[in-house]
TrEMBL record, chain B:
InterPro entries: MetI-like (IPR000515), MetI-like_sf (IPR035906)
Membrane topology label: Multi-pass membrane protein
MF GO annotations: amine transmembrane transporter activity; carnitine transmembrane transporter activity
Family statement drawn from the similarity comment of this UniProt entry: Belongs to the binding-protein-dependent transport system permease family. CysTW subfamily.
Main location: membrane
This protein's name: Proline/glycine betaine ABC transporter permease
Segments crossing the lipid bilayer: 51-71, 101-124, 145-171, 225-244, 256-273
Compartment list: Cell membrane
Length: 402, 285
């Protein structure tokens, strides 16, 4: 990911109502939304939101209804006029633009996908997809070619001459997506784009969006009220409450270290097994070195730590196997010095990125702890107890490993 | 007595003021009205006599039947009615009157639409325009239609032209109202989508709002045409030719038969025009 912010929002504020100045002053004094409503009769839609989105990033803004997320996304293309603050797209400040330049930015750089699809019912699918280009006065031939390409991209190449009402909800939203993509914008603004779809179709659309994204590398600003959707799609997530951004972070950061009670309550219900990976729950492993140590050292270590088996690595931390206390005892009795004689290699291994969900079945069948490896090198171990603790949402989770 | 309270002021010369205003307009805009009277009057005469009446009635009837057939989605009902109805009018010797009435209705409707649609658009876009024009429309529609005949005569003399003038005033409001309504009813989502893709005001109007408002506007136009037709008899009082004049003269002569026949001819025309304009509005798919 390049480190170029394509959207930069600074102190963006929207006050609905009359006493805008007064409300702004009160906001700066740190008054809450309710207090301001009481004092001025104005509603704070968005309260000094600041964030930046890098090129190629999927940035999700999440919040419950009334949290100001839909207002925020409309401030970014100025469908709603901001009260104060700035919006920089590609370094250009939208908030200060005149109508003509704003229109140019909307045409070339920002395309929007809407919750209720907002397709034009009097136009065919092809004409809908070509709308953005049509208003830029692109020739009919060229705009239809691009619209067709966009429709094929979303899997609707065969429906060019139907009307939107003849398509299912999921298909209609594909048209919405194609209409946005046909412009070849830098940024896609997606306002609860999948919220009106039923759960199965929604998941399908999320997958497709991720597929498309991996090949197109657009910058996507995605609004949702659904945390699972946010976690699936987002490279980073901003959580909104009462018009303010409460926390911005990667899905893991939000889940692991909720900034406050609000975020915590929000993330409580998430299926942690799909989000957490081996790296979050592994512990520092006890090891012996295959080149230096023999059964005696192994036995001693196990005794110290109170464990019944120990992992064996070489000097480069490559995982070789494990030895059990029983075998080591036997070896000491028989005076065997070489650890190879008692080395067991059938150790269960998982990759460091393996989801908790998948570790569960492996660890269930295993008598010994599961080793976590990265390119063959040992990174840690997972014992059954820490998996269960993590699922319960209370285990020690090491973010430094993430 | 108590009524003396109401007599605190002398009678306000409202009528005199209107007279004065009409006079001023008549004189002041004579440069405008006179050429309209002359050229437009000539044009109407030309249209009625040299265009419509030049078409052989058989062809005319068949053409209307064909139009009726196709706009109703290839059904025979209205087409058959048109043939029988128009033949009856011909049979009763009212063909020339019918052509004059068609001219009056057609031109009055056309002018109403040309004036009405843009005003409706203006009202939908501007709150101020909406606030100012709405009461004017109410006034235009509630004022008894006969009243319009008076300034019409003052401005344009007698004949077809003042008939059209009075009809236009009476028939324009529905087109204005329905255009305004239709555009305001376009879903907010679609307007937003249009804005988000960077449409200019006129692109939004022509590519989104007007197409979406089309059926509502057409309903207004249908009303306008019917109102223009309802003015036919009234307009005949100031010398407009056509079926209305027959109705009026039979009224003066208490000639029930002739009056009924002319009335039936107007009804036949009304049904044909109404059904054709309504069906233009029907969604093709």
């Amino acid at each position: 990911m390049k480190l170029l912010p394509i959207i930069e929002v600074k102190d963006l504020t929207k006050v609905f109502g009359k006493n805008k100045k007064q409300a702004l002053n009160l906001l700066n004094e740190g008054k809450s939304k309710e207090e301001i409503l009481k004092e001025t009769g104005s509603t704070v839609g968005v309260n000094r939101a600041s964030f930046s989105v890098e090129e190629g990033e999927v940035f999700v803004i999440m919040g419950l209804s009334g949290s100001g997320k839909s207002t925020l996304i409309r401030l970014i293309n100025r469908l709603i006029e901001p009260t104060s603050g700035s919006i920089l797209i590609d370094g250009q400040d939208l908030s200060k633009m005149d109508k003509n330049s704003l229109r140019e930015v909307r045409r070339k750089k920002l395309s929007m996908v809407f919750q209720q699809f907002a397709l034009f019912p009097h136009r065919t699918i092809l004409e809908n997809a070509a709308f953005g280009l049509e208003i830029q006065k692109v020739s009919k031939e060229e705009r239809e070619k691009k619209a067709k390409e966009a429709l094929e991209l979303v899997g609707l190449g065969g429906y060019l001459h139907q009307k939107p009402s003849q398509l299912s909800g999921g298909m209609q939203q594909r048209v919405g997506l194609a209409r946005a993509l046909a412009n070849d914008p830098k940024v896609l603004l997606m306002d609860e784009a999948f919220s009106a779809l039923d759960p199965l179709i929604r998941k399908e659309m999320q997958d497709e969006l991720l597929d498309l994204q991996s090949s197109m590398q657009k910058t996507i600003l995605f609004i949702t009220h659904d945390l699972d959707e946010a976690l699936r799609l987002g490279d980073r997530i901003a959580l909104m409450k009462d018009g303010s951004i409460v926390q911005i972070g990667t899905p893991e950061e939000i889940l692991m270290n909720p900034a406050n009670d609000y975020v915590e309550r929000f993330v409580e219900d998430v299926d942690r097994s799909k989000v957490l990976t081996a790296s979050h729950i592994m512990k520092r492993p006890e090891t012996i070195n295959i080149d230096k140590h023999g059964p005696r050292v192994a036995l001693e270590r196990m005794g110290e730590e109170g464990i019944s088996s120990i992992l064996v690595i070489d000097s480069k931390r490559n995982l070789k196997g494990y030895v059990t206390a029983e075998d080591a005892l036997e070896a000491r009795k028989n005076n065997v010095k070489d650890i190879h004689a008692i080395l067991q290699t059938d150790i269960p291994k998982v990759d460091i990125d393996t989801a908790l969900h998948d570790i569960f079945s492996i660890i269930y069948d295993s008598k010994v702890p599961v080793a976590v490896v990265e390119e063959g090198k040992l990174k840690g171990i997972i014992i059954r107890g820490s998996v269960i603790a993590a699922l319960a949402g209370e285990g020690e989770v090491n973010m430094e490993n993430a | 007595m108590l009524n003396t309270i109401l007599d605190f002021a002398p009678k306000i010369p409202l009528a005199e003021w209107v007279d004065w205003l009409t006079g001023v307009i008549t004189d002041g805009f004579a440069f405008l009205f006179d050429p309209i009277k002359e050229h437009f009057g000539n044009f109407m005469e030309f249209f009625a006599e040299d265009v419509l009446m030049a078409i052989p009635p058989v062809i005319f009837i068949l053409a209307i039947a064909l139009i009726a057939f196709f706009v109703t989605g290839k059904k025979f009902g209205l087409a058959a009615f048109s043939i029988v109805g128009l033949w009856l009018v011909y049979n009763q010797g009212h063909w020339e009157n019918l052509m004059n009435t068609v001219t009056l209705v057609l031109l009055a409707s056309l002018i109403s639409i040309i004036i009405g649609v843009p005003i409706g658009i203006l009202m939908s876009k501007s709150k101020t325009a909406n606030a100012i024009i709405t009461p004017i429309l109410d006034f235009m529609q509630t004022m008894p239609a006969f009243v319009y005949l008076i300034p019409a005569v003052a401005f344009f003399g007698i004949g077809m032209v003042p008939g059209v003038f009075a009809s236009v005033i009476f028939a324009t409001p529905p087109t204005v109202r329905f255009t305004n309504l239709g555009i305001r009813q376009v879903s907010k989502d679609l307007v937003e989508a249009s804005d988000a893709f960077g449409t200019t005001g006129s692109q939004k109007l022509f590519k989104v709002e007007l197409p979406m408002a089309k059926s509502t506007i057409m309903a207004g136009i249908n009303q306008t045409v019917m109102l223009a037709l309802s003015m036919v008899v009234i307009a005949s009082m100031i010398g407009a030719k056509g079926l209305g004049r027959e109705v009026l003269s039979s009224l003066q002569r208490a000639d029930a038969g002739t009056g009924f026949v002319a009335g039936i001819a107007i009804v036949i025309l009304a049904i044909i025009i109404d059904r054709i304009t309504q069906n233009l509005n029907r969604d093709k798919d």
